[in-house]
Amino acid sequence: MQTNIKKNVQKILTELGQLNKLSKAILKYGFRVFISLLVIGTVIFIFNQTKQNPDLQIISTGLIKYSFTILAEGVIGALVMDYVFKK
Fold this sequence. Notes:
The chain is mainly α. It has three helices and no strands.
């Protein structure tokens, strides 16, 4: 079971290594934006635990949710663009 998972992960990594420059750039910068928004949202969320401001809670949870949306859009967009440009 463990070797099967290891083979699958290795296959995914080799396929990601064969992406074109544009797709790699989209993945790289999309991941950076994801991490930035996630960290900012988490810091605001933790800061809000002492203040209990409902506006900050909405902002922090929104930033955290949007960070995952941006990550998904970046990954899907990069893979679709790589597929389209390889044809």
